[in-house]
From TrEMBL:
Native source organism of the sequence: Ruditapes decussatus
Keyword Ion transport found: no
EC number: 1.16.3.1
GO molecular function: ferric iron binding; ferrous iron binding; ferroxidase activity
Family matches, as CDD domains: Euk_Ferritin
Catalyzed reactions: 4 Fe(2+) + O2 + 4 H(+) = 4 Fe(3+) + 2 H2O
Name recorded for this polypeptide: Ferritin
The Ferritin-like diiron domain, residue ranges: 53-202
Length: 217
């Protein structure tokens, strides 16, 4: 008899719990089914919580152009460093110089990625093509290639600066000018000086002049 009472009580308790859950669960589901946050709704490549006046067009210009070009430049300079370090080329000064340029552009890319995160944007990686040129006649020819790369980067930097200014983003404009514009002018001048000095050595004794120049790099 007592066992029947316990069984009846257990059944009634289960039935009551079921009825309560039918009332409460929909309310919980309604709460949990609230509209998703702006973070899950946004697909504009910016994190709304920390985004600070970061225009989508400016961010796209960074990801699709400047960031990819910086990574590509670093990749190319690294290859040039390996090329001039080969046993049949044996110009360690040029090899070291191009490795420094590779590290410089990689550092610029890393800084830019950190800045994008700080401003509440998303970093996008894109494919990097192999260097279009993989052989050079001599050190002078390689310096001309390096100058072209840096000038192309300068065009990208100035374009981003103009775009940031048009979209009234003074902080990004300042960062670009301070971190990229001025140093870019300096590196272009430096490479141009190397070209001028190597050009003076052109002639029958260029090989000896290049050897001595390599020692100074």
């Amino acid at each position: 008899m007592q066992a029947n009472r316990q069984a009846t009580f257990s059944f009634l308790f289960f039935l009551g719990s079921l009825l309560v859950s039918m009332v409460i669960v929909p309310e919980v589901l309604e709460v949990s089914g609230a509209k998703p946050s702006k973070l899950s709704q946004k697909d504009d490549k910016s994190v709304s919580v920390v985004s600070q006046n970061l225009e989508d067009l400016v961010l796209a210009s960074i990801n699709k152009r400047l960031l990819n070009d910086l990574m590509g430049a670093s990749y190319t300079f690294l290859y040039m460093s390996a090329y001039f370090g080969r046993a049949d080329i044996a110009l360690p000064g040029f090899s070291k110089y191009f490795r420094q340029l590779s590290e410089r552009e990689l550092g610029n890319a890393n800084f830019l990625m950190s800045y994008i995160n700080k401003r509440g944007g998303y970093v996008e990686f894109r494919s990097i093509e192999a260097p279009s040129k993989q052989k050079w006649l001599d050190g002078l020819d390689a310096m001309y290639s390096a100058l072209e790369i840096e000038k192309n980067l300068n065009d990208r930097i100035l374009g981003l600066q103009r775009k940031a200014s048009r979209h009234e983003d003074p902080h990004m404009t300042h960062i670009i000018e301070d971190r990229y514009v001025d140093p870019q002018v300096e590196i272009i001048k430096e490479i141009s000086d190397h070209i001028a000095n190597l050009s003076k050595m052109m002639g029958e004794n260029y090989g000896l002049g290049e050897y001595l120049f390599d020692k100074e790099l």
